[in-house]
Amino acid sequence: MIRALLVLPFLSLIGGCNPNRESVTLGEPANRALRTAELADDANRRLKTLEHQTPLTSNSLFTRYQKRSVSQWNSGWTRRIDFTGVSWSHRQAGTAVTPRHLVFAAHYPLKVGTSLTFHDRAGMVVSRKIEKLVSFRNRKEGLRADVAVALLDRALPPSIKTYRLLPPREDYSHTLPGCPVLVTEQGRRVFLHQVRSVSKNSISFTKNADYPEKLYKGLITGDSGNPSFLLVGGEPVLIETHTGGGPGSGPFYSGTELFRELETTIAELDPSYRLKTVPLDPQVAPAPPKKTPESLPRKTPTVTRVPQSPTSKPSTVNPEPNKPRLPRVRRVPPPNGSE
Description:
Elements lengths: L1 H16 L21 H15 L8 E3 L7 E2 L21 E2 L4 E4 L10 E5 L5 E11 L12 E5 L19 H4 L4 E5 L5 E10 L2 E5 L20 E6 L2 E7 L7 E3 L4 H14 L70
Antiparallel strand pairs: 1-2, 3-4, 4-7, 5-6, 6-7, 8-9, 8-11, 9-10, 10-13, 11-12
């Protein structure tokens, strides 16, 4: 009895000093639909809230990973974000957008019949096979993009997350740049980059100077198809799967054309499921005014006066260009007989 009383406070002390416990949060869930202009500030605020509770040190997703057996998720900051909806059993990954549909890079595809494994929050294995596959890469009709959609043989259980997307709209090109993004790669690690640009159906990233240098990675061969996420109200929202290297670039899943094409393909493979989106305030953020030649300040031309020798003729350059030029005075010869 005495021994038990001594052990309990000791265990309590260990738990109270551990910054990686399940109580670590990204802040309170959003209580309203965010405006697109608020997405960057909201995501940064939540990441800073997380950083104040636990150091952004180890960015590995697992401390022990086994493809076909129980695995151990990292207990650090990455555990607070739900990555169970990504199949980490292959370098190409594969990200669930419905319980039966996965997306990944079309140029680095998984094949029909491939067995995939997911791990729930407890590290337990969930196995599925690819039953059908549709590539957007070399199609003769419809949108071409570096996207492949796979249909699983069975639906994933609720313990495996399916990721929502941003709803398609027209103001992302000037509201998403600067947003922090969670970039994953073949080594099952997470890095913090930021959005550089959004153009119709594509998105690119750059370094994020607000976070440690070690949380940046130049993507390499083999990282293709791994997903990137934007935190919206603390929820990881799928925005891209890798096509390009360096800071990263790829298809923007909330581009209007790509989103519609993805909806159509999902319905063709299994109409029982549909894409889901996070709610955003319907107000469209106005684009910043473009700089025009009229809005730029006018430069006054400068005239360099060349020193003249005593024998040289006077310069005809007007030394004061803003003043009107004085008329030249011609000497009129006197009439005959004068003087």
